[in-house]
Amino acid sequence: MINPATLAAMQQLGLPTQIDYTRYDSLLDVFEHVIKEHGDKPAFSCLGHTLSFKQFGEQAKQFAAYLQQHTELQAGDRVAIQLPNILQYPVLLFGVLLADLVVVNTNPLYTARELKHQLNDSGAKLLIVLKNVASAAQEVVPETAVEQVLLTELADFHPAPKRLLINAVVKYIKRLVPKLDFAKSISLREAMALGKRASYKPVQVSNDHLAVLQYTGGTTGLAKGAMLSHGNILANILQCEALFGSYGMTKGQETVVVPLPLYHIYSFTVCMVMVEEGSHCILIPNPRDLSSLVKAIKRYGMTFFCGLNTLFVALCHDQGFKQLDFSRLKLTLSGGMALTEAVAKLWQQTTGCEVHQGYGLTETSPVISANPGGGNKTNTIGLPLADTELVVMSEQGEILPIGEQGELCMRGPQLMKGYWQQPEETAKVIDAQGWFHTGDIGILDPDGYHRVVDRKKDMILVSGFNVYPNEIEAVLSEHPGVLECAAIGIPDDTKGERIQMYVVLKDKSLKGEQLKGFCKSKLAGYKVPSEFIISEELPKSAVGKILRRELRDKAIAAATG
């Protein structure tokens, strides 16, 4: 079901409305194909070391062999991966998939409370974690189903001299590795040695098999696991591949810089697409370290950069970045948060390359639509991918015509199987006709492009990360000096949105900094409110529900004068 205006726009630009998905039976087929096709070409680089596709394939199979023959994991068991963007991530990710296990992407910045919920909800039996960020895991693993912890150090996949040097600096000079004592753990290097001596046994995996549990926030304040099958992710890979032709991308010839965290669905899928394309992926462990990011770009070059509004702003104001050679840069993609027109112009002025904005959600693997090459329209979310139905729907379930606002709803092969063990929550977002309700208010323009104009739900988008008010409010409400509270998001030029917390106190002596400190101890940094506003009361409906929208409207009005 494609609106005639949208169909006309897609046809004019030569974009396919349907594609063939039978090329691969699963993500494992993709893996085998790229290893065979691209062998000695560079696959991943990080911190000055590069793995070829052949090395990537060998190491992934070694890890899969370890999982098969030296653990008690069974097909379908969950494995949590808590790593930044380092070489271990893609290798271990595909090792898990090759063993017919399920990846649980896990934020390395999670607090103990957040990590405990995700491990317990997923039922993960193995946790793979970088030593630097393993303190939270040490605290909560005994209270979860995790049977073993696999510990890795930053440079474990580097050759010996450099590996020893980097790991020693991280541990002894920078003192970034805490003292750890798990009941049952193994180092990655030990596991890989065991896997190397074993032999990998190929498994039969279909596109219906679960591949990833990708956690996303919810109205209850507790994150839910979106069940993404091999088929869901593969569909989105091939849909994006069809789109990438419009940008002039060539298989096996591109270099993509990946600064956004791979545990986030946007970066995860971009990386998967580029693996299928046989591209060289430059992994950036810490994008906030602009100096290191710029050095990596200078060293390897780039034809493709994926980022978001906040990162574009930071880079465009960095002197080192502005001096780089951008002559090979073909494509810049923006996702995760809204791209402002001013930032899009600034990036193009700095690099000479347009920014193409896409749109999607965790539940849709994630890409639903994007601005194609030759048809880039700022302030829109572009055109739907192949085989993707995107409509504007009324609250009564009617599909609305051009120019009328309603909820954006989609259907397509990239749509999740549902929320892990939560059929009631699944039914709230996927209706009887198979439409996924995004919670975003949108409009279809006469030229066939969609725009997002508002959000139906209260979710706050901070630097591309979903933050749900209920979760923050639940945490702050645990403070004995807080009577009630309400969190809202207000526009921010740097982050997209920042969090304001309105608080009614029991203990009138409490200050905002004390409340912020309390939140910091229980929430990942991006979820901590930037402002605490002490109030005598909060606006409520007739039935006593706090009216966040009223608070937000007042805050925006005050900010704009």
Any overview of this molecule?
Pathway: Lipid metabolism; fatty acid beta-oxidation. It is a peripheral membrane protein. It is found in: Membrane. This protein is of the alpha/beta class. Among the domains are: 49-205, Rossmann fold, CATH 3.40.50; 460-560, GMP Synthetase, Chain A, domain 3, CATH 3.30.300.30. 34% of the residues lie in helices and 23% in strands. The chain has a nine-stranded mixed sheet, with helices on both faces. An eight-stranded mixed sheet has the order 7-6-5-3-4-8-9-19, sandwiched between helices. Strands 17-18-20-21 form a four-stranded antiparallel sheet, with no helix packed on it. The longest helix has 18 residues, at 53-70. The protein is globular, with a radius of gyration of 23 Å.
Rg over CA atoms, rounded to whole Å, is 23 Å
Major pleated sheet? 9 strands, mixed
Level-1 CATH class name of the domain at 49-205: Alpha Beta
Secondary structural class: alpha/beta
CATH topology of the domain at 49-205: Rossmann fold
Q: Strand portion, in percent?
A: 15-25%
Keywords: ATP-binding, Fatty acid metabolism, Ligase, Lipid metabolism, Magnesium, Membrane, Nucleotide-binding
Protein name: Long-chain-fatty-acid--CoA ligase
Pathway: Lipid metabolism; fatty acid beta-oxidation
GO cellular component, one term: membrane
